[in-house]
Amino acid sequence: MTIRVLLADDQALLRSAFRVLVDSEPDMEVVGEASDGAEAVRLAGEHLPDVVLMDIRMPGTDGLAATRLISADPALAQVRVVILTTFEVDDYVVQALRAGASGFLGKGSEPEELLNAIRVAAGGEALLSPTATKGLIARFLAGGDDGDGPDPARSERLGALTGREREVLVQVAGGHSNDEIAERLAVSPLTVKTHVNRAMAKLGARDRAQLVVIAYESGLVRPRME
After folding, report:
1. Burial of 78 (0-12, 13-18, 19+ CB in 10 A)
2. Of 22, 45, 154, 186, which one has the fewest beta carbons inside 10 Å?
3. Kind and range of the H or E element at 130?
4. Which run of H or E residues covers position 66?
């Protein structure tokens, strides 16, 4: 099955480089290119890509606004957005996750990392780099944009989870894969996947990245200020 990719970046040279890389893979194809967020939203509606590689800073409608529009459209529910950013410590990264992005990747990443990111996102997994997962997202989400602390509504929704589902959610928020969680909790990867899917359904999460957001915003997971 071919993974359909939409490229959104205001730099034509970068788009060309990404196109050559993506089209060189037998299981991927570029279905469109956008130079700004508004065009990315329009093309996403036209082509229904599996993954959008979205630059976060673009003129006019930026990547953050475009991600929010794509994620809010029921017709684009299967479209996954991976944010491309120059700086992983960018506050916009966390806002993008809240807006519905499935994760992000630094522009300085190796080609193999970018291709893996596309496959991971297309498979419905969260793409959160070790740098981000181990501290960046935790610190930003704990502080939040408004400094109000845990969201009571989010906290209340956690009551729908079983004890094991909460345990798995904590591990997901720590950036661990299903295999790693299975080893930590002494269960099978399939069992972990089942718990993750049930937690997503109960919490109304679009994907694993949204589970990470909920875990921190609800106060279930506290940041390690390392």
Report:
1. exposed
2. 186
3. helix 130-131
4. helix 63-72
How high is the pLDDT of residue 93?
65
Bridge partners of 51, per DSSP, are 5, 80
Rounded to whole angstroms, the Cα distance separating 48 from 75 reads: 9
Length of the chain: 226
- Position of tokens 């976060």? 56
Angle, CA of 217, 82 and 89, to the nearest 5°? 60
If DSSP codes are grouped into helix, strand and coil, which group holds residue 80? strand
Could you tell me which residues come within 8 angstroms of residue 3 by beta carbon, excluding any fewer than 6 positions away?
Answer: 27, 28, 29, 50, 51, 118, 119, 122
DSSP 136-162: IHHHHHHHTTT---S-HHHHHHGGGS-
Q: Which residues of the chain have pLDDT under 70?
A: 87-93, 125-155, 222-226
**Which amino acid is it at 46?**
E
C-alpha pair distances (Å), 11 with each of 55, 78, 81, 109, 154: 9, 26, 18, 17, 38
d(CA 82, CA 66): 12
pTM of structure: 0.71
Burial class (CB in 10 A: 0-12, 13-18, 19+), 1: exposed
